[in-house]
Design goal:
Layout (H helix, E strand, L loop, with lengths): L20 H23 L1 H12 L4 E2 L12 H7 L6 E4 L9 E6 L2 E2 L2 E2 L2 E7 L2 E10 L3 H12 L4 E2 L9 E5 L5 E5 L9 E7 L1 H4 L11
Length: 212
């Protein structure tokens, strides 16, 4: 009998799997993202608290046209315009925030745009500024609403001031309204609309010609 050289049959045993490079990269990216999120929570606890309350509380909606607002309004006048909401009002220390006194209102939306809160700033008991804090992911809806209501902006900042670029509209009353031109870099921050009285824009102007 002749000798037959045996053939080596291929093994049917599945190879032992090892973590792929892609999986290791994905884990590393996830770890970095979680670390950054944790740092944001530690550095900006007030922002985190505000969003938590926004998503868990029942808050009223408000409507108040920027064109309607007047620098002659007192604190009582503003409260009379928004009788269905709760105000928190505080005297400001010199150089703290804007103006002499601030009133805050927690809301779910303002003028049809989802919003976190309203801030009213008074100088000598007269309305001088008003701000609306808007979740950053609604900024594009806010921008469309503002342009639909007031048309082409009167002016826009080409370069940031204190890290922020604004775009704004001059209103018929002589007051002005501004909003963030760009999304905030901090994902826990928010966009803002700022109404400024005619008085606060004097003696020069809230707008500089040929800025952009």
């Amino acid at each position: 009998m002749s000798n037959v050289r045996p053939h080596h049959m291929p093994s049917t045993k599945a190879p032992t799997s090892t973590p792929s490079n892609a999986l290791r990269v994905a884990k590393l990216v996830a770890a970095v993202v979680l670390t950054l999120v944790a740092l944001l929570f530690l550095v900006f606890p007030q922002h985190l608290r505000e969003y938590r309350l926004y998503f868990t509380e029942q808050r009223p909606s408000t409507v108040l046209s920027f064109e309607e607002m007047s620098q002659d309004w007192s604190e009582d006048d503003v409260k009379a315009k928004l009788r269905h909401v709760a105000f928190r009002c505080y005297d400001n220390k010199p150089g703290e925030y804007m103006d002499d006194r601030t009133c805050y209102v927690d809301v779910s939306s303002h003028n049809g745009i989802p919003s976190l809160s309203l801030s009213f700033y008074f100088a000598r008991n007269k309305l001088n500024h008003m701000a609306v804090q808007v979740p950053w992911w609604h900024q594009f809806s806010l921008s469309r609403l503002m342009k639909s209501a007031y048309g082409k902006p009167t002016g826009s900042q080409l370069f940031p001031v204190a890290g922020v670029r604004l775009t704004g509209w001059q209103l018929r009353s002589g007051s002005a309204v501004f909003m963030n031109r760009d999304l905030p870099l901090n994902p826990l921050s928010w966009s803002m609309v700022l109404w400024s009285s005619r008085r606060s824009c004097e003696p020069t102007s809230c707008f500089v010609k040929n800025e952009e």
